[in-house]
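cron nightly-structures :: item 1 of 1
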Amino acid sequence: MTPDRRASWLKGVLDLLVLASLTGGESYGYEIAKTLADAGLGQIKGGTLYPILNRLEEAGLVSAEFRAADRGPGRRYYHLTDVGRVTLAEQSGLWLEFDESVRRMLTDGAGR
């Protein structure tokens, strides 16, 4: 049986998808994971998502703020920085070019 390669594909683009999920405004981890799942990307577990958010924060692409909640635990809210928006735009363009090349290859083969 041929292995399902979607997890490998997702790993290569998940940072970009997390940035894209924040274009509508700030969000916290559970909401980000839900947005990605609702987009058809499957369940992204916290053990995968939070290290990505930490890397993006360390790189200056997102900033985070902890807020206490009236009920239950507080949440860490993330939002895109200006550098994050520029990076998202640049990397999205590169990804879409790559996607177009992959689609063309899969559709047309090696130009045959």
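cron nightly-structures :: done
The first strand starts at residue 27 and ends at 28.
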